[in-house]
Amino acid sequence: MKVAVIGCTHAGTFAAQETLTNHPDWDVTVYESHDNLSFLSCGIALWVGGHVAHPEKMFYATPDTLAQLGAHMKMQHTVLETNLADKTLKVKNLVTGDESVEQFDKIIVTTGSSPVIPPIEGIDNPRVKLCKNWNHANELKKSAADVKSVVVIGSGYIGAELAEAYATIGKEVTLVDALPHALGKNFDPNISEIVEQDYRDHGVTLALNEKVVSFNGTDQVTVKTDKGAYTADIAVLCVGFKPNTGLFKGQVEMLGNGAIITDEYMQTSVKDVYAAGDSSTVFYNPTQKPDYIPLATNAVRQGLLIGRNIETPTEKYMGTQATSAVELFGRTYSGTGLTVEGAKVRGIEVATTTLEQDYRPDFMPSTTSVLMNLMWSPETRQVLGASFTSQYDIAQAANVVSMAIQTKMTIDQLAMVDMFFQPNYDQPVNYVNAIAMQAVAESK
């Protein structure tokens, strides 16, 4: 069996590994336009902030590790054209310039995503940087020692972490976002307002609810918005990602944004063509519909499933809750499933419960509060989302609620789930139980 893997970051790496593990006699060829693979881009801000001791460990696989499994590694090769119906690829060697046409029995599309680069005046200014791949990471890290001021555009997870990293190493930071709140797509306002105050307390200028309209400057860059202007040594664009699927347009079913739609076995609408990761949709359990949520965790699971289903469809995709967490200025933020705004955008009616309580008993030498939001269906009482923040590490609470959403648990069931009590870690009623109990009380 002859298999092509197009693109090799998270999904491609795991798809190739799993395919060869299950079918060591298959002929698998990997095409990757870069000279590296499996880069953990979530570590860029940590590296800039001085928290990564060995940057080479930001890769969890190498071309050699896949080659040892039997893959034919075509690094620095780009796919110019595809005919998915005929399973043919036109490929260019970026080093030699040679081109060839190859035919396969099966094709795995793991082309990932590209940074969103809006058509803004001056966007090609050399002082406007991106934050996505290894080359971007190197550029940001090398310049970090010299720049004194930075404008970060976009306050999703990547922008939020990068702004914090620059602030903690003493840079003058401005954080710009068109939304009214930082992390506005990840958390509801009562939690976003906490991180916003932390930014202000650490000297970060917030330019929220402001849309960037132009960039200009030579020695520095001035970021002009619809409400003001901010000048710095560099600006870093972190406004999101889009599926890198232009090669396949018109050949497979896609969402409007270009994300390739797959079934529960990672099969596209074209037989023997599979897709995973940032180039494809996910099945979003809180809405029970396909969605586009580019996360490394989704990419890894989907890549593994391709390798397990590529011969015979056997293991179904369980879907995702888009569970995630971030630490900013010593405070943890974690969430899973829907927020109030996320539900509104998707046309889902939710009830919301908010609770704040200390994570462990007051007789302990110290404790601190946990602020929690729980989203649930007023019709079915099913848990649909949750978010948490505390100076205590409550990251794993999101994983607990993620399992509740995935198993379609109700607020009544979550309230009574068996969780231990130990004064070092929690109250007699664990805070996850407590927020669910509060929701039950409010539902009556």
From TrEMBL:
Keywords: FAD, Flavoprotein, Oxidation, Oxidoreductase, Redox-active center
Domain of life per record: Bacteria
Keyword field contains Cytoplasm: no
Cofactor: FAD
Domain FAD/NAD(P)-binding, chain residue ranges per copy: 1-303
Pfam families given in the database record: Pyr_redox_2, Pyr_redox_dim
An MF annotation (GO) of this entry: oxidoreductase activity
Annotated InterPro entries: FAD-bd_OxRdtase, FAD/NAD-bd_sf, FAD/NAD-binding_dom, FAD/NAD-linked_Rdtase_dimer_sf, Pyr_nucl-diS_OxRdtase_dimer
Domain Pyridine nucleotide-disulphide oxidoreductase dimerisation stretches: 333-426
Family: Belongs to the class-III pyridine nucleotide-disulfide oxidoreductase family.
UniProt protein name: NADH oxidase
Species this protein is from: Latilactobacillus fuchuensis DSM 14340 = JCM 11249
